[in-house]
Amino acid sequence: MTPLLSLLVAQVPALRLPQVDYFALLPEIVMAGMAFVTLGARSLTRRGLPPAVWTLVTMATGLASGTLAVLLGRRVETHGAFAAVDGALAVDGFSVLFLVLVSAAVVLFALAAHPWIEREGEDGAELLSLGMLSASGAMFMAAANDLLVIFLGLEILSIALYVLAALNRRRAASGEAAIKYFVLGAFSSAIFLYGIALTYGATGSTNLARIGTYLAANVSTHGGLLLAGLALLLVGLGFKVAAVPFHTWTPDVYQGSPSPVTGFMAAVAKAGGFAALVRILFAAMPTLRLDWQPVLYALAVLSLVVGAILAVVQRDVKRMLAYSSISHAGFILVGVVAASAAGAASVGYYLLTYTFLIMGSFAVVTVVGGPADAHQDLEDYRGLARRQPLLALGFAILLVAQAGVPFTTGFLAKFYVLTAVIAQGGYVLAVIAMLAAVAVAFFYLRLVLVMYGWAGAGAGAGAGAVGPVGDADAAGAGEVVLPAGTTSLAGVGAGGGGEPDLAVLGGGGGLALATATSTGVEQAISGEGLVAAPEGLAAGDGDPVPFPDATKVVLALCVAFTVVFGIWPAPVVDFARHATLLFGLR
Amino acid sequence: MLAVTITIPDLVTFVLAAAIVLVAAIGVVVSRSPVHAALCLVATLFGIAVLFVEQNAEFLAAVQVIVYAGAIVVLFLFVIMLLGVDREEAIGKDPLRAQRPLGVLLGLLVLAEVLVLSRLSWPIGQPHVAGPVGGPSSNVADLARAVFTTYLLPFEITSALLLIATVGAVVLARRPPRSAGQPGAATGQPGRATGQPGGAIGQPGGATGRPALDGASQPDAADETGTVRSPEREGAPR
User: Fold this and answer.
1) Where do the domains of chain B lie?
2) Chain A interface disruption, residue of B128, B171, B203, most A CBs within 10 A
């Protein structure tokens, strides 16, 4: 036997292969596996199957993956949190929460993308399987217990999203968005990777739990290396979640990407980024809290302020939602700044509710946008309530919820974030966040008013957003357009105030739970629309907007989630809190 | 510090490899043909790989050959071939005049930095490595062990990542389906093309915004990709 071979043989028994707990990996495996199965099936069918098949497959995958995550959550409840595959993957309440969130986003994405795929004549299998792959990356990021797994999850997420951003082949802006996203994304990934290298150099491990143990047991006399690593990690993740100094890609990419993809990007990239951020900061580097807290404080304030200010001046709805997503990122960062269990819970809750809000919103933007997503201007939404009353109603509810109106999940999300930060004494930050929320409410309500046909959706809407003064104003505007007794719609128009919320809830409940109310509203509006039709044309109302069944379903789901759990918050809040109480590794 | 003993074979190998590296590096700079420059670069990289072996860094040496000499320089050559091999670089004139003095200055700076750093030891979290890297098993074996134990999951995910990158490249490079193109646009809304509201508000971002719209009524010259690709088409007959 040659010496080399004997050396090898001598080494074989020493190789201890790690125990692979496939059950813990199953949500990710199902998600990524079904994506590859979809791609394979697509390449084997020559003509291609109808898009509905791929949509259904994707939805089933999302549901299966979510169910497996819930089962995993059961196991965590009974056996406690544990690390799988030699410590590379953490299975705890936190990861279960994000696995469920991403699975839900996949289901909503399939529904929201379906009308887009049919309209643009795209190949559904490609779009949806890339979506599933990207989701699997986000799931790996959320469950990762190792910096390298986080990085690889980030790359899987991002590379699929780069391609998805370019899929609107009929617009040059889509390619431009993809290039911008790719160049800046690759740059930030490199920065993140360098951060990993420096952190590894300073602590001797890439494993988050081991980094935490090392930092707890050792006092670093030369902290520069570790701090530089931490800073680079923050920059890399700050880019992914679109926090302010690293946000410049967001408006162009959100505007250029296909509309359903934009919604998915907003939901999943933020979820993955924040999950990784919270896990790195809370699980691995709690000892450095005094170092990272001021940085995140600054990021949060900048995101809140810049997002709100720039959103107000936008006229393109997708750009506006992009800036509003920056502002949302600021809010979520407030929860991270709190650096407590309640803070982590509020981050999870915020992201969960935000997923439904943003996916529903972009489902509406998808259908209003028309071929090649060309109609994105604020003016294209004028009079939407007359053209598609239910669509406008659902969109209005989602927008009002994003603005943070009570009895919606959007309000509760902001509420829990602020509670968490106030409990840690961050009064100034809480005040800044609340002021930013008021400013941001302006453009949500402006869009609502434009949809409901209020002609002068200019400065006056600001009053409607800011104070109760605008309440009667807005309601009056609604009545001008719809003179007959469509009270619920007028109520939505004034949803920024206090009183008409019940009308919003009534409408939402009707849409979600019983079709009786909805059809009643529909009939009322269609009767109204006949009368008002000549006026509408004279006012330069846009084109007829289709309302496909898939959009109906996704909108109903999102609105139902937003309203039902806004009134009855216990289940989702418990889920988020429960998830975070278990958070913390071994 | 570690007492370093230098044997004669080591010395000979080092001198030869270093000579190859230096001569080839000068060749990269002075050769007139880009292909020759690229080939000289290969020689430089191979010399560096030999130096790595000399330092007991077998893995680095292998990666150096596979990644740099194998992949990157071949990529260079592809680009050079595609752009035209015959073209000679006009080295005589610099487009940027400050380039050469700056290059010399930077080279000197790097040299000084290396000299300074070679006398320092860095106090960082972990004790820095001193001593032969070899040990009982080579660093290739150590890396292999890490890949299949501690980093098993990242290793497996990397395969998925590479697959996704391939799929993404294929999806992007594929021509869009032409026939299935615009059923919705063609049949859907007759009034679409004229449907812009003539409101007081302009359409910001018109250049990026709505190029494909008018095309909905004109079937062939319609789609956006066609207009994007048009220079290439015009260039073809020439």
Assistant:
1) 9-88, 136-173
2) B171
CB-based contact, A371 to chain B, within 8 Å: yes
Across chain B, mean pLDDT equals 71
CB contact under 8 A, A130 and B157: no
At residue B86, the pLDDT reads: 67
A92 in B contact zone (CB under 8 Å): no
Nearest CA in chain A to B154: A149
**Is some CB atom of chain B closer than 8 A to the CB atom of A169?**
yes
ipTM of the complex: 0.77
Using a CB–CB cutoff of 8 Å, tell me whether A50 touches chain B: no
Residues of chain B in contact with residue A204, where contact means CB-CB under 8 angstroms, are 125-126
- CB proximity B152 to A under 8 Å: yes
Give residue A55's pLDDT: 93
Distance in angstroms (rounded) separating the CA atoms of residues A125 and A39: 6
Q: How far is CA B228 from the centre of its chain?
A: 26
- Rounded-to-integer distance, Cα A323 and Cα A328, Å: 9
Q: List chain A residues with CB under 8 Å of B195.
A: 542-543
Angstrom distances, CA of residue A81 to CA of A94, A95, B154, B169: 10, 10, 21, 39
CB A401 within 8 A of CB A409: yes
- Residue A277 CA from chain centroid, whole number: 15
Residue A379, C-beta contacts closer than 8 angstroms, at least 6 positions apart: A315, A450, A542, B197, B199, B201
Q: Judge if pTM exceeds 0.80.
A: no
CB atoms within 10 A of CB B12: 10
Query: Over the stretch A18-68, which tens digit does the pLDDT of each residue have?
Result: 888 888 899 999 999 999 999 989 888 877 788 889 999 999 999 999 999
Domain B9-88: CATH class, spelled out:
mainly alpha
Q: In sequence order, which residues have a C-beta less than 8 Å from that of residue A411 and are 6 or more positions away?
A: A401, A404, A405, A566
